[in-house]
Amino acid sequence: MERMSAATQDFELDAPVVVGVLASRRTRIISGSVLIVVGVLCALAFGLGSKTGYDARFGLSTPGTGVQVPDLVVPARIFGLAFGVIAVAMGWWRINRDFSNRAMRWVVAVTIFGVVFAFLCWSATGTKGTRLPLTTPDGLLGQTIFLALPLILGALAGVMCERSGVINVAIEGQMLVGAFAGAMMGTLAHSATAGIVGGMLAGLLIGLILAVFAITYFVNQVVLGVVLNLFALGLTGFLYDEVMAPNPDTFNFPGALTAIHVPGLGSIPIIGPLFFDQNIIVYLTYALVVAVDVLLFRTRWGLRTRAVGEHPKAADTVGINVRRTRYINVLIGGLLAGLAGASLTIGNSSGFVKNMTGGRGFIALAAVIFGRWSPRGAVGAALLFGFATALQSVLSIVGTPVKIPSDFLAMLPYLATLFAVAGLVGRVRAPAADGEPYEGR
Amino acid sequence: MSGTTAPPAPDSIQTSEEPEPSGFTVGPLLVVALSFVVSMVVGALLIAVTDRPTRKAAQHFFSAPGTMFSRAWHAVSRAYVALFQGAIVDPHTFGHGSVWRDFNPLSETLLNATPLILVGLSVGLAFRTGLFNIGGQGQIIMGAVLAGYVGFEWHLPPVLHVVVAVLAAVVGGAAWGGLAGWLKARTGAHEVISTIMLNYVAFNLLAYLLKTGVFHRKGSNQAISPIVHGTARLPHLFPAPLRLQFGFVIALVAAAAMTWLLNRSKTGFSLRAVGASPNAARTAGMGVGRAYIVAMVIAGALAGLAGASQILGTSFALTTSIDANFGFDGITVALLGRAKPWPTVAAGVLFGALRAGSVTMQTRTGTSIDLVTVLQSLVVLFVAAPMFVRHVFRLRAAGDAGSQQLAKGWNG
Lengths: 441, 412
Fold this sequence. Notes:
The complex is a heterodimer.
Chain A: H1 2-13, H2 24-48, E1 55-59, E2 72-75, H3 76-96, H4 101-123, E3 131-133, H5 140-163, H6 171-188, H7 192-216, H8 221-244, H9 248-251, E4 260-261, H10 271-275, E5 277-278, H11 280-298, H12 300-310, H13 312-317, H14 322-345, H15 360-370, H16 375-398, H17 406-424
Parallel strand pairs in A: 1-3
Antiparallel strand pairs in A: 1-2, 4-5
Helix pairs in contact in A: 1-2, 1-4, 1-17, 2-3, 2-4, 3-4, 5-11, 5-14, 5-15, 5-16, 6-7, 6-8, 6-14, 6-15, 7-8, 7-14, 11-12, 12-14, 15-16, 15-17, 16-17
Chain B: H1 26-50, H2 52-59, H3 65-87, H4 99-102, H5 104-128, H6 136-153, H7 158-187, H8 191-209, H9 247-264, H10 266-276, H11 278-283, H12 288-315, H13 326-336, H14 341-365, H15 371-384, H16 386-393
């Protein structure tokens, strides 16, 4: 993963320079060598490392439910070796003949996909007859969606705030109060809808504090975010101890959301159970992703929001109310992050636990940065981090040929975030006025 | 100075940039005091709202409103009195037994203040360089892991052993902090993200180590390490019941050293210059990346010392909760202390008192210990927004010291 992002970085950073052909020689050699090294390592570790005669078996559908699709069977050893050879060949080609920028993008994508798949094949050959569930709802991709959900919503919240020029480090805190209020309201009202609304309102409340102190009182927004996270941690912890823990049945017993089968779409093999047999929050998230993207890039409001985030003075000059725009965006962000939190308690049918967000808000924040402050990019990044988390839980069940300690697997999403931000952040740029209070109206 | 009893101030926004006053003036101190009062009031409301007898009485509010208020008063005063008794002086034990025992609450306060001060200095030093070190937790863990390893695995002569163990903690913390600084300097990865991620990595690493041979205590089925040898423990400062140890002295020395570093040394000058304006510093020929690395190495070393104080002076064995949330609470200490060494020490003692008191509060009245986190965050929130507090209390500004650049946005 690290090497991949390094290769991408070298390639992308030098992209403007590549116009002069000579300048790219060093880059070509470095990125080509990286490809060769990756190919060799892949062939050695995942090709020769896989046991002979063991096939990697991937489950594509849950036995007994929905449309049945036969398992995908891949000879692990052959795939690892073959892919290693391909990667080496691509590296050789890169050094001696070079790829165009466009082709190189595909090369990087193919390499990442190949390494991950070779790794999966290797993982699935731990014991004879292991079946690694891939596209089932409880499989790798199903869990990816499930785990990425709060990250997607949290990242959308971050995008809304930061596009208008308010840094939101408080996503974690907003999610935490959302999870708390979601569990509490959902249980008290015996209704998941009430829980969702409660969670969103709680997120809104932290968003309101963030807005008042950041926009009206010019408090440093990074500091503010960290303090609000601590406030949310203390408040939910206190209320949990005093109210919830003594009476879990009356306050902390949100029921499970039932899956809704979309007629037609839900019956498509593989895709149906994966995307269209989910609970209401998942469908809500699909809609919100589209809504935020359209809102920011296709509406007058979005244009104003981005103007305020890039150059508030210019926006003010043409008559946009900077503070009001920021307030509304931060509050929308609060609602989204609150929903993200509510999805942890209500969607999961588990009660609230102290500090249950466990850094998801910060990973969502990293997804905002990694996704370059765009909703689509943020969703992609959130899915990537969701995949890393899902990989951890699937691998711990499957049992790899060489045992990887569970604590190292638990590090995976955080390491992925770290490498993603370290490897790619050099070439992303935040909205110009992000984090800067506007002293006009 | 002048604004303490002013008539209602106009609601104008203070935008004038005044030179930063050295140390405390009465203005900021008053803001701190008022912030504390407001936070205590919010905390009191939380206690009252969640208190069961009070809520029962609230059902008969219109027939007997007095009952509700008296019950609420009872609950709140009980909790806050216990908080005070646990932190300052406790009449339950005062005069019983040895004289030293009377000072036990104060000793506990300073014991809790020790890691808070060290992490506060760590976060403060990073602030002065324009960095936000949220990685205190990970740096404490890495410091404690190395110090613990030296402490329970090595056999060295008495004084040397503890010195080596403390130095190991410094190395562990400095490496972990320096990693974030290096990432920032080399790749531009924002330290807010990288330090948080390194916290989780360190936590999981510790969880892993506690299951492996050397770090796992023989015969225990819990994730706990062997106990640190007596030779590697930080000496106590006072006789038996008092747990205050040499770590507190280390914290004070660290504060003095940081004062010298920032105000008297060339390195400190370049750190402050980079913190004030990286572009100007770069133009002046200073290595901005180098300053980031140096600042994070020192910050990590300070947090590592907090880890040493924990493992070698308080808990003596590694568990996954060795950081005891000091990493995050230290941030509030640095913010309250405005990233200056001696105010940070004062803030550390204040929050150390809250921590020490909260334990007594929980055992005597059952009030959740998390109340203190709420109080701490609110105090810092209000202190960070002096304009807000002045609005609430209708005060006029007395030299706005709040315009210090503490942390930068993504574009650095």
